[in-house]
Every structure is written in structure tokens, then in C-alpha cells.
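Quick log. Single chain, no ligands specified.
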Amino acid sequence: MDIIKQQAKKYPHSIAIQYKDKEISYKDLDQTIQIIAHYIHKNISEKRIGINITDPLESIYCIWGTLRAGKTIYLLNHRYNTYTTDIINHYNLKSILTACPKTAPSIHASSINKTQESSIRIFTSGTTAIPKCIIHSINTLMASAKEINKAVNYQHNDIWHCQLPFYHVSGLAILWRTLLAGATIQLLTTQPNYTHISCVEKQLESLIKVPPHHNLKCILVGGSAIKKSLLTKAIEKKLPIYQSYGLTETGSACTLSKLTKDTLPFSGQALPHINIQIINNLIHVKGSSRCLGFETSPKNITNLNKNEFYNTLDYGKLSKENQLSIKGRSNRMIIINGENIFLETIETVVKRLNNINQFYLLPITENETIFLYGFVDLKQQQPKYKSIIKQTIKTYFSSLCIPKDIQIHSFTKNGNPRYSDIKTL
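-> predicted structure:
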């Protein structure tokens, strides 16, 4: 029996989802998912199904309906069509759900519950133009949800305000935590009655300016993604901030602590289900929420040994109290406004252009805000090279990835710009 069916029996009339002006009970959620699971089981023979749905409520229905049908789901980014099309072609996905199947309940519908046969694929950018495909299961995400719920006291009758998409591990993790707690997930609504919220920097700024008056139990932030000056203001306002560190491979947060003046430099302590070791200054993790492996193509899957540590490629240090501090990232990944941006992925896409010899992105911090600057070596002169590069980046990535400026520049043999020659930015 999956978690939704369990909660539908335990809390049939409790609200599982607040969506705009609607409220969906656990009983109604279970019934809708069962209808979709039956339809998919009966009508879609492919084992592998892409989920590319804009509406968050329909996304929940189809994610769980497809898992209950025993399928492998690929969570696709509905915001960037060109990028998603490349993924669909690379992974040879034949069945893509872009909305809930239009199907009516059938009195002859058999009960479908094949969640133990299901699998979850979440994409995160890597060092090539095709993102890394990370393999999770219902159980790995549930292991993360169990310990985070305990740490932030997320219980039945609580409400988590979710502003993150479900193709992102952070959004998916909020959904799993809610279902495990028998609580409520809040979507596309301005109701101020939530008890928990996950924040990026802009949202935290709003909460500091206008602190909520209701019973707020947790504001969850990623420790390396928020300005320290902003976190200090949050402490002064006595907001219930929890700092964390996590990645797609660990199914969301793997360290977490309540923010105080003493814990300000850190990103939390390891949660009980995760072991952390620092090897050669790099963070290594293992535990029950760590991913099962990676898929680089439909026929090329790498399974991880659950007893071995996984190298996150993030630099870190553990204090005597086992508080983790993040020192940097070896894979040139930065965070801007809560979004993970992999610089090498963007560079690879730009270097596909016909007139580009080399392209390099350099993050510069100005007044605690990160901006990107581009350096390019052209094969021949091109008057509109800046607009062409920026439009290419805009086609594949979010606006946060567009450089503030791009300069023509000389490069070393290793493909890096000659820093001694860089003009004043």
C-alpha cells in the first residue's frame, strides 16, 4: 500500500492539497490517482514515461498515478522547451504526459498498486549539454522526508507552502514530506495560513520586511544560497530559519539546523539517515536517501553501492560539533536566487555555435549579489555576437544564466581566459 492510500484510510477528509481556491482531501486525491493509474496501466505499454506538466495539481496526479502504475517517470522541465526536447530525444522517451489523461471513472477499473516496480528520474545539470539523470525511488525520497519532518516538526494539520516545481528535487521533497505527515501542501494560493515554507533569497527578503503574523514553524533555506547579512536580519526578527545543505543526489537536504548566531557560518548537522565524511576537503555522503545511481542513456545505467560514499564534488569542512560549512564547489556550480547554475553546461551549449572558438563564464560578486560575465574567442569578427550568445542562453536556460556583459578575450591552451588581460568589469 502506498503512502497516499494509507493516508486516505487514516485521514480521508483531511486536506491534502490547497490549490488556488480548491481543497482536495486525501480520499479524493487517492481516488483521482487510482483512475489515472488504471488508465496508464491499460493504455500506455511503455515502461518509461516523461512528465512535462505545467499545472502543479495535475503534475501531482500524474506523478503518483504513473508511479502507482509501476512505471519509471522522467521529470521534465516544462519551462524550457528546447532543452526538454533535447532530453526527450537523448533518452528516447516515447510517451510524454503534458496534462492529466481525460478519462472518467470506470466501475470495472481494477485496483492498481505497482509502486514497488516504479522508479524516478530527476535531472540536474552536469558538465555536458545533456543534464545528469539521477535515479531515485519512492523509498529514497521517503527516507529524506522522514528525517526532515522530525527536524522541522512537520506534522498532520500543518501546511507547507510550495513555490517550487516538481521537476526540481526541492519541490518533489516538499510533496513527499507532506504525504508522509498527512499534512497539506499549498499551491498557487496567497493564503497566509502556512506553517512551513522553503525560501530562496527574494522570498526571505519579503518575509523579513513583512513578518508573518500566523503560527510559522519553519523557514527552510539552503545555507550557501542566502546572503549572510540577510540571515542576520532574520535572526534579529526571530524568524524560525533552518539552514540546510543538500543536492539532488541526496533527495534534498542531508544537513539541517535551526539558525542562530552560533550556527550562522554553517549549513547544519548531518541528519540521522546520512553519513558525511570529508575526504581531501571534498564532501562525501552515503545513507538511505542517497540516489540509487545515474542514467546517461537508456542502455547505460550506473548503480551506486549503498555501502560506499559518494563524492559530491563540493568542498566542505566539519566543525567539532559536526556542523558542516560549505567552502566551494569543484564542478563550477553556483547558486543565484536559489537556482543551481552549472557554468560548464551553459558554456558547452554556447560553444556549439558556428563562430565560437571558446566561451567562459566568470561569476563576480558585487554587493553580495552574484553576476555572470562572459568571455569569448570568435573565429571571425561578428558585430552582434553578444546578442546571439545571450539569445542562445535564453533559449536553453533561465534569465539568471544570461551574462551581464560579454567581452572578446584571449584564451590559454586549457580553454580558460587569460585573467591577467581581463578588462575592468
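Residues 26-43 form the longest helix (18 residues).
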